[in-house]
Design goal:
This protein is α+β, with helices and mostly antiparallel strands and 149 residues long. The protein has a single domain (10-117), classed as Arc Repressor Mutant, subunit A. It has helices at 44-54, 63-71, 81-96, 137-148; strands spanning 10-15, 18-22, 24-27, 32-35, 38-39, 60-61, 100-106, 110-117, 131-132, 135-136. It has a 5-stranded antiparallel β-sheet with strand order 1-2-3-4-5, with helices on one face. The chain has a 3-stranded antiparallel β-sheet with strand order 6-8-7. α1 (44-54) packs across α2 (63-71) and α1 (44-54) packs across α3 (81-96). The radius of gyration is 23 Å and the shape is globular.
């Protein structure tokens, strides 16, 4: 029997060759990915990327490693295939589960697979102690000095 977390989702990990990431189930041997129990329609490359990333959840995987795992060869200079297919995969995953983000980009390093709930936009930072009324203190003080002259 599979364990469930407090919110009813399966924990991250693999069991019997199946990779679990919350409500996402990946069956590498069957070429099947389920999001909330519904099958995802993925191309062979998209599925290969999903498996390669999900098996290394929480770890940054380089573009070169992903290319080798999915295309079975070395990545050539200027080839953007990994980026294109990761974008397509990300779009499909987020369409199937819009309240989650699965693939995170680390520019200059690669991609990390880690399901996370989407959060509301962060609140704007509080006013700086150096500004009053949206105007920097120095500017405000200069205006006072100029007005006094």
């Amino acid at each position: 029997m599979e364990e469930s977390s407090e919110n009813g989702e399966r924990p991250l990990g693999a069991a019997g060759g199946i990779v679990y990431a919350g409500e996402l189930e990946i069956h590498p041997a069957k070429g099947l990915a389920l999001a909330g129990g519904r099958a995802l329609t993925l191309s062979v490359r998209e599925f290969g990327l999903l498996v390669a990333l999900a098996r290394r959840q929480g770890t940054i995987v380089t573009r070169e490693e992903l290319y080798r795992a999915v295309w079975n060869g070395p990545l050539r200079a200027g080839d953007r295939s990994v980026d294109v297919y990761v974008s397509k995969l990300r779009t499909k995953l987020e369409a199937a589960m819009p309240d989650r983000r699965f693939i995170h980009t680390h520019p200059g390093f690669g991609y990390r697979f880690q399901p996370q709930p989407l959060t509301a936009a962060p609140a704007p930072p509080p006013s700086s102690p150096r500004s009053i009324g949206g105007q920097p203190r120095l500017s405000r003080d200069l205006h006072k000095t100029a007005a006094a002259d």
